[in-house]
Specification:
The protein has 158 residues and is of the alpha+beta class. It has seven helices and three strands; from the N terminus they run H-E-H-H-H-E-E-H-H-H. The chain has a three-stranded antiparallel beta sheet. The protein is elongated, with a radius of gyration of 34 Å. The N and C termini lie far apart (98 Å).
Length: 158
Amino acid sequence: MRSLAQALFRYERIQTTLPKAKEAQRAAEKLITQAKRGTLAARRRLEAWLQDPLIVKTLFTEIAPRFAKRHGGYTRIIHAGIRHGDGAPMAMLELVERKPELVKPGKAAKTSKSAKPAAAPKPEPTPTKEPKKPGGFMTGLRKLFKKDRPKKDQDQGE
């Protein structure tokens, strides 16, 4: 359960089997409630259980303040069908209030209806390569050796 809880707090959404998701949900709810207390004892208790100071810091600084006004129900389980390999029921376990995903400015402009699509720059014509001369590697070797070799007629005549 420790690794599932760590993954949930790190990625805010995990996919696992349904029974594991139900158990991890119970553990995560208790851990978030501890983090909402904000005391030193609660921090030490979470560090002992999670064994990752970075995740504990994230839990205290980002996740617990998001759920300050909520009394329980910090996570949800979404059924995700059946795994093909063994038929196990799969589920997504996620935090109810996830941090908003960052959207790149270029993509936001493209999705709006009022914005006109920018004219695509014309691709520069690529220089065409000169066609290869027929012959290939072996022809070049033959020419090289023919030049260096003296002809038989000239050697015999002298």
